[in-house]
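>> received
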Amino acid sequence: MRTFICDSCSSALYFENDTCLACGQKVGFHPAEMTMRTIAAAAATGARQCRNWTQYGACNWFTTARPGTVSDYCTACEMNDVVPDLADLRRRALWTETERAKRRVIFSLLQLRLPLFGLGAKRPLRFRLLADERVDTGAVDPPNQQPFHMGHDNGSLTLDVGEADDAHREAIRKRMHEPYRTMLGHLRHEVGHYYWYVLVDGTAWLPAFRALFGNEQNNYEAALRSHYESGPPNAWRQWFVSAYASAHPWEDFAETWAHYVHMLDTLETASASTLAIGGRAIASPLPLVAARRFGDILEAWRPLCISLNQLNRSMGMRDAYPFAATERTIEKLTFVHEVVLRATLGDALRGNHRAPTTAHAAPVQFH
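>> returned
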């Protein structure tokens, strides 16, 4: 995430700001311009405060209506098909935190110029943000009568806003034996499912995907059931970015996608903060260009990742990034990078594109 500048007083602004602390002006993010604006400057372009900003204080984006549409909502909030009962203050607070993470995800997608409103016959990205009875009971295990199932279905992402509660999410993390669990990571993972559906499914990428990740036609429900009953294979760290990625090729891609975006966003933030390691300034990987291979991004990521983990340990906290890259996971991350490059640069990449090599990679075996 980059740092922004107030158009009233030229002071630094950050993505979550709704007020400039230097001059007191109300500010927000203008998605059409990909920058922060004061309300007066945004109004001059015809933009207004998102309805979720004025009504609930749950947003800091300005509206940007697409051609032929008029909306009281910003680009991110307009994607919601369902939200929890906002008259319930507990649910509203969890929804507000969920929206905060979602806006960062949508910013990344806008910055990468990835399709948000479908592609060809593929449907637009939509969100169903719901809350089950655990919000009221404090339980960790899903209720016996599960009212909804989280995940992706033809462009629609169903998410539990209860994950925005730190204590609840930490309890689930421990029950699932996960080293890391955040609402932002959860959203990036689910968006990864969407982009498999939009950018890989039914495209020329599918053979290379299957060579690296496995055959997505394997029974998904049976694979997840096996994962939860038996756990990941013993050697999962050699092949997957996370234990959950070993459950099924779809989950492998979604986890790899989330880790790739983690890297891009963290490196951009470090660059915007003018961080340097060993006297070498950290360069932002954004905007993506064809000349910058994933290996260049990984070379910048490794020392930053080590430093982040060491800093966290100095504060008595868990590693910020408790994962390791192997030859196989780097191949998968490179695949995601190439898919994003093609979607971002399109014809500008023609003639300069090389699909990731998979000739030496053995097919993934699922238990």
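>> Confidence is low (pLDDT under 50) at residues 350-367.
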